[in-house]
């Protein structure tokens, strides 16, 4: 469970209203604290969190978008900064928001369905930069073919004054090395 610092709520202007009006946006942004917006019945609930919890939540949203092939959520998560970078396992570096979103669109177009479990999640915050290092356990299926793999990932976010935006994702496949108990293994 994510500990919340406090909650705010605002009524929606209509039942079809999916976004806050300018006045509500200004009030929420003036909090200068990370928050999540939850659409609830007749309005919105804002869960305002400490920075590390908000960072971890944004990272979880990234993997939820990945599993659900949601380009819309990816568009929301990635920063609009021109210096964003992404390295998918086995790919060259992709530079720029549009190119990164195009890469996710290509990944999502196939009939491959993926499930991602996260292990060893480590999060740190250095000023306006949040860094998450973790292991992705990926199961995927395409037709009758299924497989699994492990990826070591680094996700870097920048706090834009109201929420964490992804500025870098790097995934590298891991090499599984069998070793006997008690032996040390090192790369030469």
Walkthrough of the structure:
There is one protein chain. Residues 1-17 and 182-188 have low confidence and may be disordered. It is built from four helices and nine strands. The protein has 188 residues and is of the alpha+beta class. The chain folds into two domains: 1-49; 50-188, Nuclear Transport Factor 2, Chain: A, CATH 3.10.450. The chain is 24% helix and 42% strand. The strands form two sheets. Strands 5-4-9-8-7-6 form a six-stranded mixed β-sheet. It has a three-stranded antiparallel β-sheet with strand order 1-3-2. Helix 2 packs antiparallel against helix 3 (71-77).
List the helices and strands and how they pair.
Layout lengths: L3 E8 L10 H8 L5 E6 L2 E7 L1 H17 L3 H7 L7 E3 L6 E2 L1 H13 L3 E14 L2 E14 L2 E15 L4 E10 L15
Parallel strand pairs: 4-9
Antiparallel strand pairs: 1-3, 2-3, 4-5, 6-7, 7-8, 8-9
Mean pLDDT, all residues: 78
**CATH topology group of the largest domain:** Nuclear Transport Factor 2, Chain: A
Secondary structure category: alpha+beta
What is the oligomeric state here?
single chain
Number of helical regions: 4
Low-confidence spans: pLDDT under 50, at least 5 residues? 1-17, 182-188
Supply the number of structural domains: 2
Order of helices and strands: EHEEHHEEHEEEE
**Largest beta sheet: what is the strand line-up?**
5-4-9-8-7-6
Percent helix, as a range, is 10-25%
Write down the overall geometry: globular
Extended strand count? 9
CATH architecture descriptor name of the largest domain: Roll
**Binned strand content:** 35-45%
